[in-house]
From TrEMBL:
Function as written in the Swiss-Prot or TrEMBL entry: Catalyzes the reversible phosphorylation of pyruvate and phosphate.
Name of the protein in its database record: Pyruvate, phosphate dikinase
Any Pfam family: PEP-utilizers
Keywords: Kinase, Magnesium, Metal-binding, Pyruvate, Transferase
Amino acid sequence: MSMFISFGTGRSTVKGDQAIGSRGERAVSLAELDMPICPGFVIPNEGVKLCAADPRKAAQQLRHSVGEVEQVMRKDFGGEAPLLLKVVESPMLNVQSSLPSVHHIGLTETTVAAVAEMTGEKFAYGEYAFLLRSILQAALVGGTDGERARELHAYLEALKKAKTKNTILKAIEGHRDVLPVELYTDPYFQLLYVVQLFNAAFTQSPTTEDSAVQVQAMVYGNLDKRSSAGYLYTHHIVTGADELQGEFFPISFDETASNGKPINQIEPNHRKALGAMARKLEDHFREIRWIRFVIEADTLWLVDQASVPNKSAQAEIRTLLDLQKRDVVTKDYLIEKIKPGRLSEILHPTLDATSVKTLPTISGGIAGAVGAAIGRVFFTAESLITAYRQAQQAGEDTSMILAMPSTFAGDVKAIEIAQGVLSSEGGYASHAPVVARSLGKVAMVRPDAVFRKKTLVLDGHEVQEGDYITMNVPYYDDPVIYIGQGSLTKPSLEDSGLLEFMDIIQERIGDIDVHANADQPRDASLARKFNAMGIGLCRTEHMFFAESRINRFRYMILADDTEMRTRILDDLHKDQTEDFYELLKIMDGLPVTIRLLDAPLHEFLPHDEDGMKDFIAQAKKDGVGLTRAAILERSQLMREFNPMLGHRGIRVAISYPEIYRMQTRAIFEAGYKLKLEGKDPKPEIMIPLVMNPNELKVVRNGKKIEGKHILGIRDIEEQVRAKFACDPIKYSVGTMIELPAAALNSSSIARYADFFSFGTNDLTQTTYGISRDDFNTFFSDYTELDLLPNNPFKVLQPQVKELVKTAALRGRMVRPDLTLGLCGEHGAEPQNIDFIREAGLNYVSVSPYGIPIAKLAIAQMNL
Ligand code: PEP
Ligand code: MG
């Protein structure tokens, strides 16, 4: 009984869990699928050892196995029209072998002449030399002493130089004794000798010591006019289209030839056969496969097949959707198979790797928002916007990247038109990444980036304002910057299969909803496409940064008295009503959680001297009654040492109730207008940075104290309803839980809140006392010592979880129907989803581009 495993079309002698290595397994699977695999056999590792330890016994087994191949190929090993063999390593792991494949075993002094008759001298002797070269290389891998190695090298060099029959024979003559003489005359000796060399090479490394060897018949795509070689993928590996993608090379030995033609142009019979094989293989492995084939004198042979690790996410999804439609896989299989993070590849442009090959490359940094972006860098929002307009007018490339140490709310307008943002301060939950994610832009942070006046220094490379850079921020790898201009592959949502996949995911979503963080109609529409069940966070402060509004907002916050402030607010109120009208209309029937203003007021003021100068000039032009001195004085007063813990959120509402009053009125007026139009608006008013129940009570129910009358949200709703003379709309009032005090006070806060939304960005910041913007100054030191295993602004930390759980429990004790959501950046991180269910939350709210990822993570958890 042979210990070698034979394979050929429709048969293999493999038994149980025999270790035949990855290559052998690929061949055997083709055999077992009844595909026309070039026949051969696998010598398992113990057989390889036997060839060295007991050559006589091994030779018998080799003769037996070669005999089987001869029968299928109807050729003789060592005969007239000789069967030739190929020997390759079949490693136990799917790794690249360091040993050369040895082709054309069986070419000897005698057979080479016979082959030359059929194929011409050039080919026959060229391949004979190639065989000897591969044998010499394999001998070198096996480890040899100095003198022996020199001999082998000298022979190898001589053969490399020889190009004709005569020079090849001369080179052999000159070094004939370097290899055993039987090697030139006896095909079986050749085969045994090569396996022995492989055995010696395997023992050199623990990764190869258990490798097997595969022996396979050679077939020739260059035999005649009816011959070719080629490869194909069973689906298109970039677009995922259900078509064969590949090439064939007429009259060529393999696919390294330069005469490639699209696979679809191959002769129709072969095209049909390859198509059928592709489908069968794909159905078996339930994924895209790669196939190598040879057509020898019109007979089609498969040589190898394998998995395709570098297919695009789109290709993976579309192939699985096709497989599901063919009933090969279930919907659950589809959900299980796709890694959530890979979806971001579909939503963002991806880098064409070939386009950056020659560019200087700088790896590392913090991934802020996934994707790839190319553009000219600008170091201020103003310079970017100016350059953008100029480029637009001149019809030039408008791709730009905003590069700044950190960004502020006033820079959002530049981020909106840029491709990406590069910053040096802060991290994942800082302004630039948060805004970039919400707008579908690319962002990364490089703490070592140095900003000089008009120059950015990146790892020693100087980049001038206006120079191109290319940023690649993959989901599962470190970000990379290339100095220069690469090119991108732009995704098409409609062609990607993602929306179809989202419908399948929706069937497994269970009872945790995904809402969207959205404040622009465009984002709300995208969120609906992804089946978002509402808006969970509309950050209203983002709405005031539009060029047409920012100055009015500034005049409002700098106003000397309530009367002036109210007058300007009345004007802004019209814009806000339109904003809310649009959002509520797009999200008709679904909850829209509108967070009232939450930002330290001074963030709205110009950040540098030039900006301030322009603003003062504009104020004068607009005749708003604010002098230069008043502007400077009031701006100065507004500066805070620690703005994140300063005058923001509900605190602004307590000091300037007219601001929330304007926003609240705008919400209800938009709501009632829609109601009269037959729509079903569901506004949810959310109050940020609450620390105790009394603050919330005032804002919700109102309060009169001498001189100050804070109208409650409920009062305003009643007023607006009376004006519209309409049945009440369904609305709710709730709060963010983003301070530890609020979490611990949650039972009493719940008396005034219909819902809680956990703002885990601020909650992490305030629980751990680490600033979301400054934390990268020490994060790398902490990770080095294993003191913080994950980025706390991405992965929920234990004490934050404890606070969330406590607040959820206490809140629901008072109000069992309390709706609970989470709208911090943590909601889009698949690692947090288990906890979200465990804590009993009803939804997570994430940026529109994070919705598919969060939904898939939830669906996977529900499998
Ligand atoms: C939060 O703090 O988690 C949150 C969502 O609010 P913001 O990021 O706007 O502070
Ligand atoms: Mg917050």
